[in-house]
Write the structure tokens for this entry.
Amino acid sequence: MIVSTYSIAACDLAASQWGVAVQSKFLSVGSVVPWAEPHVGAIATQAYANPRYGPDGLALLREGLSADEVVARLTEADDGRDERQVGVVDSRGKAAAYTGPGCMEWAGHRVGDCYSAQGNILVSAETVDALAVTFESTAGDTLERRLIDCLAAAQIAGGDRRGQQSASLLVVEQNGGYAQLSDVIVDLRVDDHPKPIEELRRLYQLHFRLFGVTPQEDWLPLDAALQREVDDRLAKVGYTSLREWAGVENLEERLGGDDEIDPVVLEALREASG
């Protein structure tokens, strides 16, 4: 089965993050295409995808091979390479890609600093160009948002000529995930949906609400007036403790001291209490 796909493998070296975003007319594309490991690299394997390109490619990157060397090593050893497509970003932000001559049109790739954009069975090359241009123009935003924006721009530019079905976002950072004990910052999959990129963005916004971090300077002081509002709203939803309510709503990671409140928590409480 062909993973007709457009994807981007990328990294943010300043944040020490690597990731992959992908959309396809294929069920559960996130179970096949994206692979990433902190301080190692990111890989997207697609077309008549060879799933071994993921773990094998990361192993080669871990040994210190460059993105170019990994792409060459993977494809030279694969008798089915003419129908494969792969994009690789290494630990230094160098990128390389391969599109086999047997991939179905339109198929191709574009690489730049810290990214590899690729696609097959696309409406046109404009889809891959949109991935690249969007990534280049969004420097300074978080890697997660940049990758979702890339998918959205690519869809507007034409996307997969067979349509939409699934999408995925994977971003990793050493100890950057849950409780600072996981390397996975975000791993979201939309397996079957008429508008998978929109759904992926919705899930990411929910993920950010629960697990994102608001800069300390943006937290709000719990002065007397705001404390009264918080207490009143807690009473409306049947709680006397902000910590108890936040635990039920899975917002406990966003709690701090008793004299300040994360604005994301306050917004959620306001929504819950009407």
About this structure: The chain has two domains: 5-211, 216-273.
